[in-house]
Amino acid sequence: MSDIQSKIGGGVNKLQDSIKSGKQKLQNAQEVSQHQRIVQEASEKRSMEIHKIGEIVYKRNRLEEGTDPELNNSTAKIKELDVIMYQAQQKIEEFQQQEVEGRLCPECHASVSEADKFCGSCGTEIPLPAPADEQTKECHSCEQDIAATAAFCTCCGTKQL
């Protein structure tokens, strides 16, 4: 009788793990979708600003005028949108990486989330992943953290000094 109860309990635990895993995947998919929407909206706004810059530069070059404050304003807006798109893309990559890697309990091999400190199936303490030792520096143009050895910013493409 206890063998049947044990099998039923094991089946229930597996079912709970599957539900938890499914919820996590759905949540990740929703987050990715939200960040993809942010990228799309920022990209559309960026395209509009690039078009404005083209019009301004065309007029300035045609009339041989000096520096135009509108040009500086549009350039600043494009820079802000580039940062927004870069940050959203980084979040998308983080969620997709979590999907690929997936964390498992070292004891019972049940799936656990990044936030879990203990396994929900067996109670084993989950070791935290080791932080990356990569040194970073701040881009002098967009102020995003980039690899210390990078020759160009991964966000705005500016050559680093």
TrEMBL record:
It comes from the Bacteria. Residues 105-157 form the DZANK-type domain. Residues 1-45 are annotated as: Disordered. Residues 15-37 have a biased composition (Polar residues). This is Zinc ribbon domain-containing protein. It comes from Salibacterium lacus.
